TrEMBL record:
Keywords: Cell membrane, Membrane, Transmembrane, Transmembrane helix. It is found in: Cell membrane. One of its GO terms (cellular component) is plasma membrane. This is Sodium:proton antiporter. The keyword Cell membrane applies. Pfam families: MrpF_PhaF. The chain crosses the membrane at residues 6-25, 62-84. Coiled coil: none annotated. GO terms for molecular function: monoatomic ion transmembrane transporter activity. It is a multi-pass membrane protein.
Amino acid sequence: MTLEVVLFIVVGVGLTFTALAALVLIVRGPTILDRMVASDVLLTTVVLSLGADMVARNHTDSIPIMVAIAATATFATIVVSRYVKRRTDSDLPQATEEAEHV
C-alpha cells in the first residue's frame, strides 16, 4: 500500500468514528443543545467527507453541496439557539414569581 492509500484509510476511519459518535449523541443527548452540537458535528463530518472525496478523485463538483450543507447547519444552529433562548426567557419570570412566594 502506498502512503496515499494509508492516509485515506486513516481519514475514513476517523470520519466514520466521528459520525458514529455524533449519531449516538444526537440520539442520547440529554438536552436539545447537546443534540444541536452533535448535529453540527455530523454535518461538518459530511462536509469533510465530501472534501476528502474531492481530493481523492481530483474534482470540485461537490463544492455547491458543501456550501448548502454549511449554510443549512448555520441556519439550524441560529434557529435552535433562538428557540432555546425564548424558552429560557419565558421560564425566568415563573421562577422569579415562585421565589417571591416562598
